[in-house]
UniProtKB/TrEMBL annotation:
Gene3D superfamilies: Aspartate Aminotransferase, domain 1 (3.90.1150.10), Type I PLP-dependent aspartate aminotransferase-like (Major domain) (3.40.640.10). Its EC number is 2.8.1.7. Its cofactor is pyridoxal 5'-phosphate. It comes from Thermofilum pendens (strain DSM 2475 / Hrk 5). Pfam families: Aminotran_5. InterPro entries: Aminotrans_V_dom, Cys_dSase_SufS, Cysteine_dSase, PyrdxlP-dep_Trfase, PyrdxlP-dep_Trfase_major, PyrdxlP-dep_Trfase_small. One of its GO terms (molecular function) is cysteine desulfurase activity. This is cysteine desulfurase. SUPFAM superfamilies: PLP-dependent transferases. One of its GO terms (biological process) is cysteine metabolic process. Keywords: Pyridoxal phosphate, Transferase. Residues 24-399 form the Aminotransferase class V domain.
Amino acid sequence: MLDPYRVRRDFPILSKKVHGKQLVYFDNAATSQRPLQVVEAVESFYKSLNANIGRSVHELGLRATEAYEDSRKIVAAFIGAKPEELVFTKNTTESINLAAYSLLVSGLISRGDAIVVTRMEHHSNLLPWVRVAKLAGAELRVVDVDDEGRLRLDEYEKALSRGAKIVAVTHVSNVTGVVNPVKELCRLAHDAGAFCLVDGAQSTPHMRVDVKDIGADFFAFSGHKMLGPMGTGGLYIRGDLAERLEPPFPGGGAISLVSCAEDSCSAEWLHPPHKFEAGTPNVAGAVGLAKAVEYLRSVGMEDVEEHEKRLTAKLLEVLEGVGARIYGPRDMKDRLGVVSFNLDGLTPHEVASMLDLEGIAVRSGHHCALPLVKRLGSPMGTVRASLYLYNTPEEVEYFGAVLEKIKKLATG
């Protein structure tokens, strides 16, 4: 069983006081905190290994390249992928754009095709497909959700029935915590002849992920939400598909040969994943992300998920106790530890600001998922509390006590 009190010793920021109150960090869906082990790994790289990779035969260059590729092996194994199937990116947003534009420039999305998304998507898994659909002359289809934010599978199957080429769906909603049945969604997409991209930004930090078992063609995630450095992330591309794709961002480090005639130039790409990583990458970030993965593996992802589910069940009870309007399902088998709510008589930003004065960090607003928040009936947004492995039952109890105080202030 995970011991959050032991885990917290590795996170010095959690001992910080905000407005004179002990910090309670409930904004993990936006970004997680970093353990000392990650901070020290990044620092050590810059102190002892800093050099550009894949370009030099001197000692530092070779060792930096080795550290980068070793990090790729560690992170790829964490999601059940081969190293050559993992492209390092700076975040989930870049990963999804990379997938979308690779399909476009490779001619795998064209006029008359359909792109299927859902109403629960983060803007980062919606807007790239809006743009690519426009550029390709393709049709965009949006699958609706029910009143608790669950995907409507009947509408999903209907959307696949007429010429779908790519499905883009989140694994876990960043608003409601809903866990989508992505293995089934990918299977149905493949049966319809479509590729399937899974946005794993909110799942990879909190549950065991196996991209092969899911059956995804693409799987995107961010490092900064899973204890890693900001500016790190990854895109899994299924091996045979990666070989077929043209990289949308050409440049140095991605090619094996460039030749120019009098009036034209051409290039031959390196094999994946390197053809998708033009330019100098965030090598120190990759090293830090690998260390974050090692940290999570040492704790155990099954234990991380179990701990968060216990806390989330307690959090839902606390919110119900103060009369909050909760968005998303109550059944813990359908969700993870992202909980959106509102208090009557107060705007989301007012609640978040009052919580901040008591040392509690949450997010308020539309959470970059405006179509979903509107569908759930809260056009002004919601307050979002999101949990992680270092949060404790006492923090949830304190959160409830502060909400009770805020409610009394609001009602006079």
